[in-house]
């Protein structure tokens, strides 16, 4: 059974269903109950399962919570208003802070990959007192991402496509979701195939992206981060104000995706924008660091979070 396979990806972890006024969230939690909390947020088009190769080891010294983002995996996928505010990273950050409080963690360490990292840094900017340490995997700030797309329109064409008004992207993707999303996974890995993904994890990803409401939610996620969306506006406002992240920040970037053929590394971008004191490194990997190169990714996260 798929559920059994999912549980086998996280030995010793428990399944959590967390009800909130804005919807129900799903997470897996493992590690000592009294250990420092570490929240892991996944990216697009995946689920909490992307952490399965490193979460059990991190749980040796932390209470690790692997959460499905709103609209992804098994968390609720509510609709959104015309301004896409339900999927704004500021909104999602506030909701996730509430989720963490409901399971007993007011302050916690936080690591995010891809879309999860966008929620993570927005939460850390908005409510820095909650976040003890912050790790950002394979992104640059949303405002900078759009500068890169404007300078090189061939850069990440899925961004402007998914940010198009409904229902165009939903209709195109809905014709064959597996072909669309698996095509992206292949394109973004270092090997350009699906060999990096455990079959059970890949099946969980397929479960999510074959549901029309979740396809719509993923598009709303990108619309919120679109050229005129609330995520970019929040970044621009904070950059203008000179706001920075006060907590220790680790930036991990992929050699074969984010940092490939770029004139400026991801670490350099973060240092000149929101995280002037950031440390970081490039991981030999495609975009999916925790699955393609779990050994180096785990070593970097362990050294950063075990202080």
Automatic annotation (TrEMBL):
Domain of life from the UniProt record: Bacteria
InterPro entries given in the database record: AB_hydrolase_1, AB_hydrolase_fold, Epox_hydrolase-like
SUPFAM superfamilies, alphabetized: alpha/beta-Hydrolases
Residues annotated as domain AB hydrolase-1: 36-294
Keywords associated with the record: Hydrolase
Residues that span the membrane, as ranges: none
Protein name: Fluoroacetate dehalogenase
Organism listed in the record: Methylobacterium thuringiense
